[in-house]
């Protein structure tokens, strides 16, 4: 007999909190009528407009209910890694939180990099304006980590168990079929970062380092949101580029016929 839902929640706290957060953000987005352009990640906005905060908002946001349900289902299945006798024995809940943050941040950066290669190097300019949202990259990253660490099988969206090493690619194909608008680049970025994490190359990014990076990321995010007038902070006003304390136009003092004239 399986565990009750209460016990499952208690045994996978990080997963439960993440699912709750994603659901709450979806409800907020839906009630406020927020769309892809306002929270999504694209090369034009992240690089062209320096709106790097989209790396975070895009991955925590879902605009379509079906997309959210797919991700929550997969995420809940991955929650088994928090079990004491499972993969999480490497570091428990703390390790799950650590790697989830790493996957979220780096997969967003890799996504932008892939769009740069596709749009700038390969001259496929349509990729520069593609907008992505959703937690899929983190999920695909975890699938890849589990596949590389010897987990035998995984249930893909509840349709049945398949060998773990096939899971990332099977999920990628299935998601593309059921959700045609799903971002291939976003999912691929999660797989790439997951492979890197599985090698142990990212283990140095401890919670302390991530907390430090999070503070800087939050500060930069607030700066850009205030600068683009998306966030109002009491007592803080960002001057435009042509406004400042130093006047760069014509001098305020002129000498005319030996007489000092102030304008």
Automatic annotation (TrEMBL):
Similarity remark: Belongs to the peptidase S54 family.
Organism lineage string: Eukaryota, Viridiplantae, Chlorophyta, core chlorophytes, Trebouxiophyceae
Positions of the Peptidase S54 rhomboid domain: 50-199
InterPro entries per UniProt: Peptidase_S54_rhomboid_dom (IPR022764), Rhomboid-like_sf (IPR035952)
Keywords: Hydrolase, Membrane, Protease, Transmembrane, Transmembrane helix
Single Gene Ontology MF annotation: serine-type endopeptidase activity
Any GO CC annotation of this UniProt entry: membrane
Protein name, entry field: Peptidase S54 rhomboid domain-containing protein
Taxonomy, superkingdom: Eukaryota
